[in-house]
Amino acid sequence: MDNQWLDTIESASSLDELETIRVNILGKKGSLTLEFAKMKDIANEDKKEFAKNLNEKKGAVTKSLEAKKTILMAIALEAQLKEDKIDVTAFSAKIQSGAFHPVQDTMDRVITYFQNLNFSVEEGPLVEDDFHNFEALNLPAYHPARDMQDTFYTKDNKVLRTHTSPVQIRTMMSQKPPIRMIAPGTVFRKDFDITHTPMFSQVEGLVVDELGTVSFANLKHVMIEFLQHMFGEVEVRFRPSFFPFTEPSSEVDISCVFCEGKGCRVCSHTGWLEVLGCGIVDENVFTAVGYKNVSGYAFGLGIERFAMLIHKIGDLRSLFESDIKLLGQFR
Ligand code: DAH
């Protein structure tokens, strides 16, 4: 059967073209539709044959259109997929990750270090009473050492704690020896310059055990190991000093991390940087908390100072300015 339409359909190269062809054949004025109109001119006896022939052709055309449409759709989809492909190697916008503040990071490192040595972590109130902040720490009212700390007083005669040492007192009064604790936290003093801020962070440490079992040698060993953990291979020296709550007392220096001990502006050309205070717990402190026949050592340090020396930050105040440019460097 001759069917000229099938070749036309076969020649379609796109879905749009195929649709045009369909309309040209089967539309109201389509060539095949017009063939049906010729029916009226056909002799009656031939009408049946004529109609059958045309219907067969129409059937073939419809089938062919469907088949061609399926093929062209598949080709179109293929082309679309090629166009839309995702380049998994393409560069994407950088995601900015956050970072711990250097003070928090340093605090966490100190806490973790002592936790690994089995020290418990104790806390106390920021607003303290005179007894815990001063009196029980062998700092009676008339004591000249109270001048060492510029204190914020509240209206009801309490203080913003000037150090984390009062947590020693609270811990000893609520627990029995042996004690092995640190007290991390915020403290307050009336001070504001390049190396002082009115609020800063300290970690206090305390070890108490049976009389004669805790010595200055133990304290020295723990401090040296701790400081070398925090600052790397520095030298450590112990200088005799005074604290009311310890006797004997010592201030501890490390060789300057800026000049490696050669002498520079930061260490005032001494080659040494003071990093903490420590000593053997004064008997008067044990008496104040009702402890008998014990010995102990204590130490206290400032976290901001540690953070500054670890990260070589010049101005302490920059740690409190929430400057994204500075903080971004610790990512
Ligand atoms: N409380 C002292 C301060 O704030 C630090 C300190 C020094 C704590 C010596 C101690 C110590 O326990 O033994 O400056």
How does this model look, in words?
This protein is an alpha+beta fold. It folds into two domains: 2-85; 102-330, 2-Layer Sandwich (BirA Bifunctional Protein, domain 2), CATH 3.30.930.10. Helices cover 40% and strands 20% of the residues. The chain has helices at residues 4-11, 15-26, 31-37, 44-84, 102-116, 130-133, 166-174, 216-231, 283-289, 303-311, 324-327; strands at 120-121, 127-128, 159-160, 179-188, 199-210, 236-243, 246-255, 272-281, 294-302. Strands 1-4-5-9-8-7-6 form a seven-stranded mixed sheet, with helices on both faces. It has a two-stranded antiparallel sheet with strand order 2-3. α1 (4-11) packs parallel to α4 (44-84), α2 (15-26) runs antiparallel to α4 (44-84) and α5 crosses α10 (303-311). The longest helix has 41 residues, at 44-84. It starts with a helix and ends with a helix. The relative contact order is 0.11. The model has no long low-confidence stretch (mean pLDDT 92). The protein binds 3,4-dihydroxyphenylalanine.
CATH topology tier name of the largest domain:
BirA Bifunctional Protein, domain 2
Name the structural class: alpha+beta
Order of helices and strands: HHHHHEEHEHEEHEEEHEHH
Report the biggest beta sheet as strand number plus sense, adding barrel if it closes: 7 strands, mixed
Q: Give, in spatial order, the strands making up the sheet with the most strands.
A: 1-4-5-9-8-7-6
Number of separate helices: 11
Oligomer kind: single chain
CATH class of the largest domain: Alpha Beta
Coarse morphology:
rod-shaped
Q: Detail the poorly predicted runs.
A: none
Quantity of strands, as a count: 9
The separation of the N and C termini measures 80 Å
- CATH architecture group name of the largest domain: 2-Layer Sandwich
CATH superfamily of the largest domain: Bira Bifunctional Protein, Domain 2
Question: What portion of the residues fall into strands of 2 or more residues?
Answer: 15-25%
**Count of folded domains:** 2
